[in-house]
Amino acid sequence: MIVFENVTKIYDPDVIGLADNTFHIQKGEFVFLVGPSGSGKSTLIRLVLKELEPTEGRILVAGRNLGTLRRSKVPLLRRNIGCVFQDFKLLPTKTVYENVAYALEVVGEHRRAIRRKVPEILSLVGLGDKMNSLPNEVSGGEQQRVSVARAFVNHPPLLLADEPTGNIDPETSIGIMQLLLRINRTGTTVVIATHDRDMVNRMRKRVFALDAGRIVRDERRGAYDEPAEEVTDEA
Amino acid sequence: MRLSFFLGEALGSLKRNWVMTMAAVLTVFTSMAILGSVLVTDKNLNQGTTALKNRVEIRMFLKDAVLGTPTQQALETMIAHDSQVKRFEFVSKEAALQWVKDNMGSEVVQFLNTNPLPASYNVYVKNAGQIEQVATRYYNNPAIDEGGATADKPHPGVTFAKETVRKMLGTINLIEKGMWGITAIFALAALLLISTTVRLSIFARRREIEIMRLVGATNWFIRWPFVLEGFVTGLAGSLLATAGIWVLNLAIVSWIKTSGIGYLHPVDYPIIWGGGRPGLLVILGGLGAVLGGVGGGFALRRYLRV
Fold it and tell me: For domain B57-160, which architecture applies?
């Protein structure tokens, strides 16, 4: 689903975002990107979205080479990638319903299909009764669920999440993670950048650990920290 | 294109940002009102110039002795065949006296026992600029009374308002040029103001645009609501301006007609179409709507780079 070949990203003037990384993520995988701030997690996600161009190397997403992808095709790429962000990125002037519907309007979905799909996905994430609220009228956890619903309403083959639980409490985070896991079970590849140690340790999924722009560990059923220094945190 | 969706987006955003909308509409209104006034003034000025030009005449005073002789006949034939003359009229001695009586009061002439006023031809030329050229042709004509010639006025028998005409035409020309200069400046100002207003409204919503792009909206999908927003704003402003100008035009025209300068023939600018040319509503509305739409679409450009 995602292939990185010797990908390097250097920000102006000479800040390293990613340094010479090669990896494959298979279709249907569930991957955590962990590592300290500035280690390159967000850079990786933005490269997959073609929000950034790599300085060197080749990126393939769903078999398409992003380097040769025409600018006008970028929206088509993004329609096949669901996105969830730490700050939710909801349109503040639209209701919960309209925010989710927007993702369908964008792809030219028929009005009737929109009226059917949006309530369906909103009740799936447990927001069936908040459809007409504005984003700032619901809690952080609920906003994040709206954002997940919007990311998934098109049933994209790939879903990226950048710190999806960064702004919400641990209880609510579990709900969000379970939601992402359910989405993964439908066959969608899920890639999550996170600082949430408990979550990563509990789920035991594939883990990429990044440090200073380099993937220093790629473990099948990994934990947040390296196995050697066993988990000893009190939090 | 899903017009209803885009229109809904545009109108919704206009309503939400109504302060900005008002600012933009007022901007367009101001610019279009200025442009409209210039259009109307220019048209009236043209009309006025034409009216004044038509009043420019040459007067040729005849010797009493030639009245009714072939000499007078020869002069009249010459005038009638002059290709630069539009029309002419003969004013007899009696008519001249009557004119004096009518305009200055009969007391002025009541003690005269003979009529001292000469008969004359009033000649109207086709092009006011050529009046001197035409007049020269009749100097020293045997039918014309050149009596009382001085160094200053070598040909008192042929008179025309030489200086006045020249100055008047020069002034009108200058005013016309000045008005178009002002129009050009204001049109530029309007373009910049509309573009700035739209850019401000976009700047306030750049986060929304970023989100739309992340969800996979194409540039035109994002752009259409903004274009429509500009279009609606421009149209609203120009419609207001048209209404304002039209009312003002009517008021001024009726004032001029009832005052002493009615001979200027003021005109109402056509509203939709008139005399084979687009009227106020079409010019201002069209310009405002297009400027708004283009401004809306263009102002987005820097936020749509991938």
Answer: 2-Layer Sandwich (3.30)
For chain B, the structural domain boundaries read 3-52+167-303, 57-160
* Smallest CA–CA distance from B6 into chain A, residue: A105
What token pair was written down for A51?
A: 């929000």
User: Would you say the pTM of this structure is higher than 0.90?
Assistant: no
What is the pairing mode between strands A81-85 and B57-61? unpaired
Q: Which residues pair with A38 in a beta bridge?
A: none
Q: Say if the ipTM goes beyond 0.95.
A: no
Question: Could you tell me if A23 lies within 8 Å of chain B, comparing CB atoms?
Answer: no
Q: Please report the pLDDT score of residue A10 as a whole number.
A: 92
Window from A46-55, A175-184, B165-174, B297-306 with minimum mean pLDDT:
B297-306
Residue B126 CA, distance from chain mean position = 21
Predicted local distance difference test score (pLDDT) of residue A235:
45
Residues in chain B within 8 Å Cβ distance of A90: 211
- Tell me what the pLDDT averaged over chain A comes to: 90
- Written as one letter, the residue type at B292 is G
Residue-level pLDDT at A27: 93
CA distance B125 to B144: 18
Partners of B5 on chain A (C-beta within 8 Å) are: 105
pLDDT of residue A148: 93
How close, in Å, is residue B218 to chain A by CA atoms? 5
Which range is most confident: A93-102, B157-166, B186-195, B295-304? Answer: A93-102
Average pLDDT value over all residues in chain B: 80
Judging contacts by C-beta atoms under 8 Å, the chain A residues touching residue B218 are 72, 75, 106
Does any CB of chain B come closer than 8 Å to the CB of residue A113?
Answer: no
Interface residues of B toward A, Cβ cutoff 8 Å, are 2, 5, 12-13, 16, 207-208, 210-219, 221, 306
- With a cut of 80, say whether residue B189 has pLDDT above it: no
Nearest Cα of chain B lies from the Cα of A222 at a distance, in angstroms, of: 30
Domain-by-domain residue ranges, chain A? 90-155
The closest of B29, B41, B47, B42 to B252, measured between CA atoms, is: B41
Contacts by residues B278-282 (CB-CB < 8 Å, ≥ 24 positions apart): B280/B36, B280/B39, B280/B40, B280/B242, B280/B245, B280/B246, B281/B239, B281/B242
Residue A71: closest CA among chain B residues belongs to which residue?
B306
DSSP for B222-267, please give it: HHHHHHHHHHHHHHHHHHHHHHHHHHHHHHHHHHHHHSTTGGG---
